[in-house]
Amino acid sequence: MTKQNVSDPKSGVNSTMYGAAVAMQPPAPPGSYINISRKTLVETNGGPRINSWVDSMRASSPTHHMSTFLSEDKTSWMVHHPSALDMFEDIISASKGKQIVMFLDYDGTLSPIVDDPDQAFMSDAMRGTVRKLARYFPTAIVSGRCRDKVYSFVQLAELYYAGSHGMDIEGPSKGSKYKKGAQAVLFQPASEFLPMIDEVYKELLDKTKSTEGVRVEDNKFCVSVHFRCVDEKKWGELALQVRSVLKEYPKLRLSQGRKVLEIRPIIKWDKGKALEFLLQSLGYASCADAFPIYIGDDRTDEDAFKVLRERGQGFGILVSKTPKDTHASYSLQEPSEVMTFLRRLVVWKRLSFKRHPKIHKQLEG
Ligand SMILES: O=P(O)(O)OC[C@H]1O[C@H](O[C@H]2O[C@H](CO)[C@@H](O)[C@H](O)[C@H]2O)[C@H](O)[C@@H](O)[C@@H]1O
């Protein structure tokens, strides 16, 4: 899959671009992701670059089924990103002697993707599984959504939450029961951008109101413009509307998720930084102690997968039915497989506690 490192001298933002974000590039291959650079954002006025926006919008959430991929592509994908269920024993043995710390994305990982973002509920079975998981492992939800919103879906007070793509982090009110010295957490590195984000949210609402099916979501430190329900013929029009707002805001950047344009501050903070921050807050700054497992389905989760690869610590697991360009080590196909994987972790831990009942009692208490 095509992949380019792009440095924008204007904003100083370096972004990895996959596929068609640069003008006149061929369309991105299925399954790749795009960050639209500020250059593309501000230096053009319609024409071919809007076409590349539309290409990248198309590539952000491919509809291709696994059966449409060449068999060598599928084989190569499964060799390089095998199922985390098939590799469960290997994952466990790699974690030996370390505390597993769980990081879970929300949409597309714990809840299925649906048309209406307000209806993306997780099942009671998934909630029960995550509750049990958090009994045995420090667990954080890391989401692009506003923290309050994702909390209202998950409803588990014992978890850590990182909302707005990691720009709004809060720990459980009672603190961590896993590690002495874990700090109480509330961290909002983009708070100075709140008035700007609020302004942009309102402008985007106004500017896009004529486009049927568009949905603008206020995620507190970032804004999502959903085009899942917008007719594909209108994507160019929507791209123009969004660009006309954003060109006035050099301190904001645009990236893409699954049928969504994500607008956020250009600060160097993302889900990967949030993961590192949470590990440190939990008292696991040293790689020797902790084994992080991050499960996510989206472009923004790649920042966290990349951090784990670079640190050589733990693993990333990509939730996807189709081959994608990813820094994750393993794959799971859909939220139901995520639930199975989490349940196996719980069962494995319970069994190991049976062999060490004293530790079990301490944790349960
Ligand atoms: O980091 P996440 O928890 O995965 O959040 C990323 C975005 O997720 C939501 O949008 C996605 O899910 C919606 C509901 O299934 C779907 O309609 C939409 O097309 C997807 O992009 C959420 O609404 C966004 O605000 C998040 O940024």
Automatic annotation (TrEMBL):
<keyword id="KW-0378">Hydrolase</keyword>
<keyword id="KW-0346">Stress response</keyword>
<dbReference type="InterPro" id="IPR044651">
    <property type="entry name" value="OTSB-like"/>
</dbReference>
<dbReference type="GO" id="GO:0004805">
    <property type="term" value="F:trehalose-phosphatase activity"/>
</dbReference>
<comment type="pathway">
    <text>Glycan biosynthesis; trehalose biosynthesis.</text>
</comment>
<dbReference type="InterPro" id="IPR003337">
    <property type="entry name" value="Trehalose_PPase"/>
</dbReference>
<comment type="function">
    <text>Removes the phosphate from trehalose 6-phosphate to produce free trehalose. Trehalose accumulation in plant may improve abiotic stress tolerance.</text>
</comment>
<dbReference type="InterPro" id="IPR006379">
    <property type="entry name" value="HAD-SF_hydro_IIB"/>
</dbReference>
<dbReference type="InterPro" id="IPR023214">
    <property type="entry name" value="HAD_sf"/>
</dbReference>
<protein>
    <recommendedName>
        <fullName>Trehalose 6-phosphate phosphatase</fullName>
        <ecNumber>3.1.3.12</ecNumber>
    </recommendedName>
</protein>
<comment type="similarity">
    <text>Belongs to the trehalose phosphatase family.</text>
</comment>
<dbReference type="GO" id="GO:0005992">
    <property type="term" value="P:trehalose biosynthetic process"/>
</dbReference>
<dbReference type="InterPro" id="IPR036412">
    <property type="entry name" value="HAD-like_sf"/>
</dbReference>
<dbReference type="Pfam" id="PF02358">
    <property type="entry name" value="Trehalose_PPase"/>
</dbReference>
